[in-house]
Amino acid sequence: MRELETLSGSWLGFWIQHRSRGHMEMALGFSKGRVAGSGMDRVGPFLIAGDFDSTGEVSFCKSYATHKVHYGGFWTAP
């Protein structure tokens, strides 16, 4: 598995809520078990702050000006 710390930089992703899917662009940095960055999606600009561990578990909060969204999951290399 490729280490997350080697993958800091630009990311493209998506979110799914109910039956709606939205795309997002992000700039993420991974270092010493922490993930931080910023991005934009159709809701607006956001900041990201969270954690990751050696098992590939990732959790972070995406903070918009009006609300926050919490994410959790596992990193798997393609």
Main attributes of the structure:
single chain; 78 residues; mainly beta; 6-stranded antiparallel β-sheet; 6 strands; 0% helix
Task: Explain what the structure shows.
The protein has strands spanning 9-17, 20-31, 34-41, 44-52, 57-63, 68-74. With 78 residues, the protein is mainly beta. It has a 6-stranded antiparallel beta sheet, with no helix packed on it. A hairpin with a 4-residue loop joins strand 4 (44-52) and strand 5. The relative contact order is 0.20.
Distance between the termini: 9 Å
Fraction of residues in H or I helices: under 10%
Radius of gyration (CA) equals: 12 Å
Strand order of the biggest β-sheet = 1-2-3-4-5-6
Query: What proportion of the residues form beta strands (DSSP E)?
Result: over 45%
User: What is the residue-averaged pLDDT?
Assistant: 89
Low-confidence stretches: none
The backbone outline, from C-alpha atoms, is globular
SSE sequence, one letter per element: EEEEEE
Q: Count up the helices.
A: 0
Number of strands: 6
- Sheet having the most strands: 6 strands, antiparallel
Structural class of the secondary elements? mainly beta
Layout of secondary structure:
Layout: E1 9-17, E2 20-31, E3 34-41, E4 44-52, E5 57-63, E6 68-74
Antiparallel strand pairs: 1-2, 2-3, 3-4, 4-5, 5-6
